[in-house]
């Protein structure tokens, strides 16, 4: 592509901004205006090699640093994030499009993982057993892996990277981040703040790019572990390719999150909760509610309440404080979502609220899709089957809770699900029988706090360990068991037989 005089983003390698070696660049747009605002380099293998080399050079000293020293740098990083939160949110909004309030909230949720990682001196404690045999002690320790990498999506350019690198770095690893090429500037801002916090050069590195950079990371012999969040087809590719090259991999995929609404639910409460969960961040959340399962005779009332509220959602530029929902991230995303709405109509679903032509004054070139609702949707329809990743909500009708749970369990995705009810019995049955990684009871987006772990089942996760929480600590470390004896002389030396304790 032709490169104009617009800003070209650098990479961040070895504690400083450096020009990319690649000659390939992509466009970054402001989704509210459609305007190209800067260019992003698509790193090649030489760029990735340079980042890994910097991370490998920094690893021995960083690994040897006391855990408390590492934690104190993270504490300062967290303080800087908090002090600059509003300006950082503006960076997210400019490139992603979500509202400033939503952007700021996502930074706060990322900071919670930094806060969790500050407890790393406690989190990495091993176990000790005294005198397991005569004068023999045993204990376990957890050690860092080396260079770790994160490949993160566009929808949360601050929060999702912070699900990964704070824990990895706190555990003594060094890190290479490959953010989404659609909104990469936030990663550079975090790198600058980390340096200001005192992080040694080379511990945290940022390379931008597309598939070439991703493949270079997956195949690089100097990288020990890869974390990924994105669509299911790419997650499967990341997992298979990384594992084939000997890496530890956690790859979080797509979602089709359901909200089951029982006849006894507080319909007004459920309506507000579902509207926010469906249309916040324009539906570009892996935990967005995209399918409502209306049980029994609540269906007609719920449909009407949802439609009334959806029509009142204020769609506009993310910088407008009156906006409740901003644009989607790119023109291609808008066109893809519009195509799904067209197909839903063709497949026979009932279009209750049509968001294909939202009126956003003075932003005619923005990538806007309005809140959309379909009713009487069947499981075989593409608008139910596929992850649309936009502000499209479908209503499926069910006769019973058992039927609703069976519908959720038959879906290939299993990230999150919610139940709205006043019945403890129904909630208990939902909790026990629903085969999904994260559940909410009268909570529409059940994203766990940082001290728990985030992840789904089935096609929503490839790998054994979730992100952040204690699973994050386990993923970025490996265990070692030590058995020791200190005899005064050689009289207790073991023989040729299998050593026995006791």
Number of domains as seen in the coordinates: 2
**Order of strands across the main sheet:** 14-15-16-13-12-18-19
Molecular shape: globular
What structural class do you assign from the helix and strand content? alpha/beta
CATH architecture annotation of the largest domain: 3-Layer(aba) Sandwich
Write the layout of secondary structure elements.
Layout: E1 11-13, E2 16-18, E3 25-30, E4 35-41, H1 45-64, H2 67-83, H3 85-96, H4 100-117, H5 120-123, E5 128-133, E6 136-144, E7 147-151, H6 159-170, E8 174-178, H7 185-196, E9 204-206, H8 211-219, E10 225-229, H9 232-244, E11 248-252, E12 257-261, H10 267-279, E13 289-295, H11 299-311, H12 331-346, E14 350-353, E15 372-375, H13 382-385, E16 392-398, H14 401-410, E17 413-414, E18 416-420, H15 424-433, E19 438-441, E20 457-458, E21 461-462, H16 469-475, E22 477-485
Parallel strand pairs: 7-8, 7-10, 8-9, 10-11, 12-13, 12-18, 13-16, 15-16, 18-19
Antiparallel strand pairs: 1-2, 3-4, 5-6, 6-22, 11-21, 14-15, 17-20
Helix pairs in contact: 1-8, 2-4, 2-7, 3-4, 4-6, 10-11
Characterise this structure.
With 502 residues, the chain is of the alpha/beta class. It folds into two domains: 11-253 and 460-481, Aldehyde Dehydrogenase, Chain A, domain 1 (3-Layer(aba) Sandwich); 257-441, Aldehyde Dehydrogenase, Chain A, domain 2 (3-Layer(aba) Sandwich). Helix content is 38%, strand content 22%. The chain is built from 16 helices and 22 strands. The longest helix is centred in the N-terminal third of the chain and has 20 residues, at 45-64. It is globular, with a radius of gyration of 25 Å. The model has no long low-confidence stretch (mean pLDDT 93).
């Amino acid at each position: 592509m032709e490169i104009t005089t617009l800003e070209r983003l650098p990479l961040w390698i070895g504690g400083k901004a450096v020009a990319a070696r690649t000659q390939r660049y992509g466009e970054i747009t402001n989704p509210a205006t459609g305007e190209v605002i800067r260019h992003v380099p698509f790193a090649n293998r030489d760029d990735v090699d340079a980042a890994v080399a910097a991370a490998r050079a920094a690893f021995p000293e960083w690994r040897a640093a006391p855990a408390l020293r590492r934690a104190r740098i993270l504490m300062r990083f967290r303080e800087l994030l908090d002090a600059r939160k509003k300006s950082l949110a503006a960076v997210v909004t400019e490139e992603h499009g979500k509202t400033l309030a939503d952007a700021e909230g996502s930074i706060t949720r990322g900071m919670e993982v930094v806060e969790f990682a500050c407890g790393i001196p406690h989190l990495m404690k091993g176990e000790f057993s005294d005198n397991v045999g005569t004068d023999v002690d045993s204990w376990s320790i957890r050690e860092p892996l080396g260079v770790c990498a994160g490949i993160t999506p566009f929808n949360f350019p601050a929060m999702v990277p912070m699900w990964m690198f704070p824990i990895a770095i706190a555990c003594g690893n060094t890190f290479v981040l490959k953010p989404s090429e659609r909104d990469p500037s936030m990663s550079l801002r975090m790198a600058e703040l980390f340096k200001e916090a005192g992080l040694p050069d080379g511990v945290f590195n940022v390379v931008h790019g597309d598939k070439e950079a991703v493949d270079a990371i997956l195949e690089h012999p100097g990288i020990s572990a890869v974390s990924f969040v994105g669509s299911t087809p790419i997650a499967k590719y990341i997992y298979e390719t990384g594992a084939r090259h000997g890496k530890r991999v956690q790859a979080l995929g797509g979602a089709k999150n359901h909200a089951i609404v029982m006849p006894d639910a507080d319909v007004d409460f459920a309506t507000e909760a579902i509207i926010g969960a469906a249309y916040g961040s324009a539906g570009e959340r892996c935990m967005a509610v995209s399918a409502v399962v209306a049980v029994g005779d609540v269906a007609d009332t719920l449909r009407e309440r949802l439609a009334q509220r959806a029509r009142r959602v204020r769609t506009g530029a993310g910088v407008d404080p009156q906006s409740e929902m901003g644009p989607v991230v790119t023109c291609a995303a808008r066109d893809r979502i519009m195509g799904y709405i067209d197909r839903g109509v063709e497949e026979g679903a009932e279009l209750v609220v049509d968001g294909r032509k939202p009126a956003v004054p003075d932003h005619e070139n923005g990538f806007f899709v309005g809140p959309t609702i379909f009713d009487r949707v069947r499981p075989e329809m593409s608008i139910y089957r596929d992850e649309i990743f936009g502000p499209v909500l479908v209503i499926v009708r069910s006769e019973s809770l058992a039927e609703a749970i069976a519908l959720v369990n038959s879906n290939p995705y299993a990230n999150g699900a919610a139940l709205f009810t006043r019945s403890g019995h129904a909630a208990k049955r939902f909790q026990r029988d629903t085969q999904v990684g994260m559940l909410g009871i009268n909570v529409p987006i059940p994203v766990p706090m940082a001290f728990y772990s985030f992840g789904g089942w089935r096609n929503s996760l490839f790998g054994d360990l979730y992100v952040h929480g204690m699973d994050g600590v386990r993923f970025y470390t490996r265990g070692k068991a030590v058995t020791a004896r200190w005899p005064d002389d050689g009289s207790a030396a073991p023989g040729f037989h299998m050593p026995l304790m006791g």
